[in-house]
Amino acid sequence: MHEMAVAQSLLDMVEEEIARQGCRRLDVAYVEYGALSGIVPESLQFCFEVMIRGTSHEGARLEMLCLPMRLRCSSCGNVFGGEGQEALWQACPGCGEQFGHAVVLGKELILSRLQIR
Ligand SMILES: [Zn+2]
Description:
Elements: H1 2-20, E1 26-34, H2 41-52, E2 61-67, E3 69-72, E4 79-82, E5 102-105, E6 109-116
Parallel strand pairs: 1-2
Antiparallel strand pairs: 1-6, 3-4, 3-5
Helix pairs in contact: 1-2
The structure holds zinc ion.
C-alpha cells in the first residue's frame, strides 16, 4: 500500500531528526506534498496514526500542505501553474500547446518542519 510506505519513510525522517536534536516525542509534523505525488492526505494521516500507536509519538499529528504544480511547456518553454491532475493537459497560456508539458514541481514530499519535545 502506497500510503503505508510513505508514512513509514516520513516516520523514519522524523525519528532521525528527533534523535539528532536529543528530543523524544513528536507533536506535529508539517508535511508539504506535490499535487502530483499521488498522496491522499486523509489516508496518509490515518496510516501515520496507526503506525505511531503505542509508541512515544502516539497522538502526534500531520499538518499537510499541498504544493501547487508547475509545468514547463514542451513547445515554448513557458512555466505555468495548475491545480489538480487535469492541469497536465491544459493549454499553455503562452502558445496554446496542450500536450507534453514537463513537470517542474509537483511530485515532491517534503518534511518542512517538526514540533518535537
Ligand atoms: Zn507554450
